[in-house]
Amino acid sequence: MLLFGHRGYSDQYSENTMLAFSKAIESGFDGIETDVHKTKDGVLVLCHDEKINRTSDGKGYIKDMTYEELCVYNFGTKENPQRISLLKELLELCKGKNVKINLEIKTNKIQYPGIELESYQMIKEMGMLDQVLFSSFYVDSLYKLRAIDSSLYLGYLFEDDYEKNKQLCLTQKFHVHAREDFLDEDEIALFLKAGLDINTWGVKNRFRYAYFKEKGVNIVIANKNFKKLKM
Question: pLDDT value at position 229?
Answer without folding.
Answer: 74
